Protein backbone atom coordinates (compact mmCIF):
# COMPACT_ATOMS: atom_id res chain seq x y z
CA UNK A 1 0.00 0.00 0.00
CA UNK A 2 1.43 3.37 -1.00
CA UNK A 3 0.42 6.63 0.64
CA UNK A 4 2.13 9.91 -0.21
CA UNK A 5 2.62 12.54 2.45
CA UNK A 6 4.60 15.74 2.08
CA UNK A 7 5.00 19.16 3.59
CA UNK A 8 7.39 22.00 4.14
CA UNK A 9 8.60 24.78 6.35
CA UNK A 10 9.89 28.10 5.05
CA UNK A 11 12.41 28.67 7.82
CA UNK A 12 14.30 25.42 8.27
CA UNK A 13 17.25 23.43 7.00
CA UNK A 14 17.50 20.44 4.71
CA UNK A 15 18.61 18.23 7.62
CA UNK A 16 15.59 19.22 9.70
CA UNK A 17 13.25 18.51 6.78
CA UNK A 18 14.86 15.09 6.19
CA UNK A 19 14.33 14.24 9.86
CA UNK A 20 10.79 15.61 9.88
CA UNK A 21 9.92 13.50 6.84
CA UNK A 22 10.90 10.30 8.67
CA UNK A 23 9.13 11.38 11.86
CA UNK A 24 5.89 12.12 10.02
CA UNK A 25 6.10 8.89 8.00
CA UNK A 26 6.54 6.83 11.17
CA UNK A 27 3.72 8.70 12.93
CA UNK A 28 1.42 7.83 10.04
CA UNK A 29 1.84 4.08 10.61
CA UNK A 30 -1.02 2.90 12.79
CA UNK A 31 0.15 -0.65 13.62
CA UNK A 32 3.38 -1.97 15.05
CA UNK A 33 4.96 -3.50 11.95
CA UNK A 34 8.53 -3.99 10.73
CA UNK A 35 9.66 -0.87 8.86
CA UNK A 36 12.34 -0.21 6.29
CA UNK A 37 13.46 3.40 5.97
CA UNK A 38 15.30 4.34 2.79
CA UNK A 39 16.84 7.80 2.74
CA UNK A 40 19.41 9.67 0.71
CA UNK A 41 20.27 11.56 3.90
CA UNK A 42 23.43 10.10 5.40
CA UNK A 43 22.81 12.50 8.30
CA UNK A 44 19.55 10.73 9.20
CA UNK A 45 20.71 7.18 8.54
CA UNK A 46 24.06 7.51 10.32
CA UNK A 47 22.40 9.48 13.10
CA UNK A 48 19.95 6.68 13.80
CA UNK A 49 22.32 3.74 13.26
CA UNK A 50 25.66 5.02 14.55
CA UNK A 51 25.48 8.27 16.49
CA UNK A 52 22.21 8.04 18.47
CA UNK A 53 23.36 5.48 21.08
CA UNK A 54 26.42 7.62 21.86
CA UNK A 55 24.36 10.80 22.18
CA UNK A 56 21.89 9.11 24.50
CA UNK A 57 24.68 7.62 26.60
CA UNK A 58 26.35 11.03 26.98
CA UNK A 59 23.22 13.01 27.85
CA UNK A 60 22.42 14.10 24.30
CA UNK A 61 25.84 15.69 23.82
CA UNK A 62 28.36 15.24 21.02
CA UNK A 63 32.06 14.95 21.67
CA UNK A 64 32.42 18.24 19.79
CA UNK A 65 29.86 20.08 21.92
CA UNK A 66 26.21 20.94 21.34
CA UNK A 67 24.05 18.48 19.44
CA UNK A 68 22.36 20.22 16.53
CA UNK A 69 18.68 19.42 16.00
CA UNK A 70 18.46 17.78 19.42
CA UNK A 71 14.71 18.35 19.56
CA UNK A 72 14.16 16.34 16.39
CA UNK A 73 16.68 13.65 17.30
CA UNK A 74 14.83 13.10 20.58
CA UNK A 75 11.48 12.97 18.79
CA UNK A 76 12.79 10.65 16.08
CA UNK A 77 14.29 8.35 18.71
CA UNK A 78 10.98 8.30 20.59
CA UNK A 79 8.85 7.60 17.51
CA UNK A 80 11.32 4.96 16.30
CA UNK A 81 11.03 3.03 19.55
CA UNK A 82 7.58 1.89 18.42
CA UNK A 83 8.98 -0.07 15.48
CA UNK A 84 11.59 -2.59 14.42
CA UNK A 85 13.34 -0.41 11.83
CA UNK A 86 15.99 -1.24 9.26
CA UNK A 87 17.71 1.88 7.98
CA UNK A 88 19.11 2.10 4.45
CA UNK A 89 21.05 4.88 2.80
CA UNK A 90 20.52 5.27 -0.96
CA UNK A 91 22.39 7.59 -3.28
CA UNK A 92 20.15 10.45 -4.38
CA UNK A 93 19.43 11.43 -7.96
CA UNK A 94 20.72 8.26 -9.59
CA UNK A 95 17.43 6.86 -10.81
CA UNK A 96 16.16 5.04 -7.70
CA UNK A 97 12.41 5.07 -8.41
CA UNK A 98 11.30 5.66 -4.82
CA UNK A 99 13.99 8.23 -4.11
CA UNK A 100 13.04 10.15 -7.26
CA UNK A 101 9.38 9.99 -6.20
CA UNK A 102 10.24 11.39 -2.76
CA UNK A 103 12.28 14.15 -4.39
CA UNK A 104 9.34 15.11 -6.62
CA UNK A 105 7.02 15.24 -3.58
CA UNK A 106 9.52 17.36 -1.64
CA UNK A 107 10.02 19.73 -4.55
CA UNK A 108 6.26 20.10 -5.06
CA UNK A 109 5.85 20.99 -1.35
CA UNK A 110 8.32 23.90 -1.51
CA UNK A 111 5.79 26.59 -2.53
Structural notes for this entry:
With 111 residues, the protein is mainly alpha-helical. It is 49% helix and 9% strand. It is globular, with a radius of gyration of 14 Å. The two termini are 27 Å apart. The relative contact order is 0.21. The model has no long low-confidence stretch (mean pLDDT 91).
Task: Give descriptors for this structure.
2 strands; two-stranded parallel sheet; mainly alpha; 4 helices
Question: How would you summarize the topology of this molecule?
Answer:
Blueprint: H1 14-27, E1 35-39, H2 42-57, H3 70-80, E2 85-89, H4 97-109
What's this model, at a glance?
With 111 residues, this protein is mostly helical. Helices cover 49% and strands 9% of the residues.
Strand order of the largest sheet: 1-2
The helix/strand series, from N terminus to C terminus, equals HEHHEH
Strand content: 5-15%
Compute the number of strand runs.
Answer: 2
Instruction: Output the number of helix runs.
Output: 4
Average pLDDT over all residues: 91
Amino acid sequence: KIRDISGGDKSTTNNRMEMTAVIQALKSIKRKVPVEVYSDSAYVVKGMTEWLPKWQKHGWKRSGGKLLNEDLWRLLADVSDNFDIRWYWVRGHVGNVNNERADRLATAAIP
